[in-house]
Amino acid sequence: MKRNPIFLIVLFRNNKILFFAFVLFVLAFIVVNIKRGMTVSPLFQYGMYSGPLYLNDSVFAYKFVANGKPIDLSKLSCVERDKLITPIDYYQNSAVRNQNIFETVFPILKNISSNKDLILKKFVPPLSENSFAEWYLENTEKIVGHKINSLLIYSQFYGYHKGVYTIGSEKKLLHYAQ
Amino acid sequence: MLSKNDKQIRPIAFIYLIVFVVSTVWDLGHGMLLSQWQPVLLHNRLDFTLQFILLTGAGKEVIQSQSFRIILDVINILLPFALTFSVIRRRRIQPALAMLTSFFALFYFMLICATAHYSMETYIAFVLLPLLFLYRKTVHFFLVFNCLRIIFILFFFSSGLYKVLFGALFNTEQFSAILIQQHSSMLTGIGTSAYKSFIEFWVHNPMASWFIYVGATFIELSFLVGLITKKFDRFLGIFLCCFLLFDYVFMGITYIPWFAFTALFFYSKSVNLSGQKICY
């Protein structure tokens, strides 16, 4: 009985460059997933939310208070909520995170350019608190649809038990007023 | 006369373009094009490719220059149109455009993901799918099509495998706990809405939501069958659509670009090597 040819053999016979590119891509994907550290886009680890999580895990949340009233996040779309939350997340962590990543990758990058200060400016662009505040207030006004004179942002930790969220701690992160 | 594969190239190119347009209109409607978003801060991630992009100074430029952002937006929108046009009209520039569109998508979406809430995994479809049109010869289109189909299967299957290996699949609280973490600020905050009540229902019913998680993992793992046979590809295409819709409904994650990957399954049987049967 005649056997059907295997795809990899067909690929090798017809296009050797594509064959090696494909094999390399697949091997690199496997390595990136086994090593589990730095990714090399477009090779990722698709393991988000694959570690066990439990209902009694501590819950981290943000609270936004505009003009003295808490913003009702349930009335916003998922994208709008993300647009509100993620910049604050980034603003809180980016400076340290960017610096740490820079220190990690600089030993590799210095082979391309040894000017550390020049590269640093590209990796950690300067950001003043005022420029972020101005931008973030404008962003929030677009989302909530009204003028904001003061904005308070809190980070909170909650515990969850049988449908009830109990606040464990609350910290005022930012206060913008104009 | 056009071969069967030639006839399939056009609808696949159209699917890619339609999904791209829908995704771009969605981003435009949410003010998420670079020139609309006008980011002020950069959030690096441990990704080797992103480091090279930042090394060019593009990240700094995106934050400081509106004209640079407009140029990037315009190129990003034009390239898929130009590529699809070149595929339909069988232009000689097609391979170069395919490569350029793929590289530019990687460059553009990595930059926007470093400044906004998007994750690059979402946009991987716009990086990989232009490569379908890397060759003008029918036989090579067939080869790239199947390479990308296998690559996507590996991506998707690995996601399910992680859930099994790390034990999340066997944890009956898993999906309720995920929903709490994913929607924490909404769930702990004031106000009620239909969506909030919907999420609360699944949070308060861990067993019911665990079945959703198991179903999603089953969908991811089921793609392994695609490495052995193409018989079930239509089902896999439908599974993928369901998975993406559920991801949006439950998690609030928009995976619009991934709908373009469904072409790799809905058209897999009709894209073949002169009717020859091949083992996968």
Radius of gyration of chain B, taken over Cα atoms and rounded to an integer in Å: 20 Å
Written as H for each helix and E for each strand, in order along the chain, the element string of chain A is HHEEHHHEE
Structural class of chain B: mainly alpha
Q: How many DSSP-defined strands of chain A?
A: 4
Distance between the termini of chain B: 29 Å
The proportion of residues forming helix of chain A, as a percent range, comes to: 40-55%
Structural class of chain A: alpha+beta
Largest beta-sheet details of chain B? none
The helix/strand series of chain B, from N terminus to C terminus, equals: HHHHHHHHHHHHHH
> What is the overall silhouette of chain B?
globular
As a whole number of angstroms, the C-alpha radius of gyration of chain A is 24 Å
Molecular structure report:
- The complex is a heterodimer of chains A (178) and B (280).
- Helix content of chain A is 47%, strand content 20%.
- Chain A has helices spanning 7-14, 16-35, 78-109, 116-123, 129-144, and strands at 59-66, 69-70, 150-161, 164-177.
- In chain A, strands 2-1-3-4 form a 4-stranded antiparallel β-sheet, with no helix packed on it.
- The radius of gyration of chain A is 24 Å and the shape is extended.
- Chain B is built from 14 helices and no strands.
- The model of chain B has no long low-confidence stretch (mean pLDDT 93).
- Classes of the chains: A alpha+beta (178), B mainly alpha (280).
- The interface between A and B is large, with 85 and 87 residues.
How do the strands and helices of this protein lay out in sequence?
The complex is a heterodimer of chains A (178) and B (280).
Chain A: H1 7-14, H2 16-35, E1 59-66, E2 69-70, H3 78-109, H4 116-123, H5 129-144, E3 150-161, E4 164-177
Antiparallel strand pairs in A: 1-2, 1-3, 3-4
Chain B: H1 4-29, H2 34-37, H3 48-55, H4 58-64, H5 66-88, H6 94-113, H7 120-128, H8 138-165, H9 174-182, H10 184-188, H11 194-204, H12 206-222, H13 233-251, H14 263-266
Helix pairs in contact in B: 1-5, 5-6, 6-7, 8-12, 9-11, 9-12, 12-13
